[in-house]
Hints:
Layout: H1 3-25, E1 47-48, E2 52-53, E3 62-64, E4 71-73, H2 78-95
Antiparallel strand pairs: 1-2, 3-4
Amino acid sequence: MAAAPIIFLVIALAGTIAIAVKVGRSDKLGIDKAEEGIRDFDEDAHWKGGLIYFNRNDPSIFVEKQFGVGWTLNFGNPIGYLIILVPLVIILVISFM
């Protein structure tokens, strides 16, 4: 009876990993013919160190991560800096009052 929570945890963890791998790799499996003419802003030259996306010509604020699952900021867009700096300034002001 005590093994039931552990079994459930293992099944849930395995399912989560399987979905994350499938979703994370889905855009790298192939290109549809309908999408061949679409320009892709997300080129390797715009990634700094593979972690920071910087492209002034891309109007997106959030972009998909280059590897794995998730989103990151476009630091070439001024709003990206505001999203980082405004909460940081608020935290610092509240901390030192």
